[in-house]
Amino acid sequence: AQTVTQSQPEMSVQEAETVTLSCTYDTSESDYYLFWYKQPPSRQMILVIRQEAYKQQNATENRFSVNFQKAAKSFSLKISDSQLGDAAMYFCAYRGYNTDKLIFGTGTRLQVFP
Amino acid sequence: GAGVSQSPSNKVTEKGKDVELRCDPISGHTALYWYRQSLGQGLEFLIYFQGNSAPDKSGLPSDRFSAERTGGSVSTLTIQRTQQEDSAVYLCASSLVRYRETQYFGPGTRLLVL
What pLDDT score was predicted for residue B99? Predict the structure, then answer.
């Protein structure tokens, strides 16, 4: 069975600095998708970034980028130029290529200090 | 366009009562998912719908939990004879089609069983 591990329950960063959130996963599949979702206090899960495992190029969305290491089964999220609005819970998630459900890690709470 | 909506936003009930949680997916999305987020934990998959049928009910924790979807749109998650351990945030997500499409989440329903 696939598992997703986020080993950092909490992280903090100062405004305008860079922070990296870690995620590792375990799977025997070769094709799959990985996601980072952000959950602010409003509870709304917001998609931050998505990576297809067959793509070697790391995904980037504005200030958010990932470091995808397929062999190491690692999928970290880098947030550059951190903003106060980035404060939230961040969840890493896995989805098999031909499966329906997302498998989530336990989340990392990110605090941003002015 | 309108996102996924869920109602009620919050629900307080007494142990032993039945509750119904509603999800309105994004218009045109054929796939619909229910997840549960218990306090301090990540999200766990409950059930998935493709159209009005539920090919995967593997995450429903007990036979007190059921769900239906009508008209390929609105879905209702019903919990009978609620227990205190059912207290959680119930999140609904939808995607355009199954498998490889991104899931978009609603704001969730926070259920508290007293």
Answer: 65
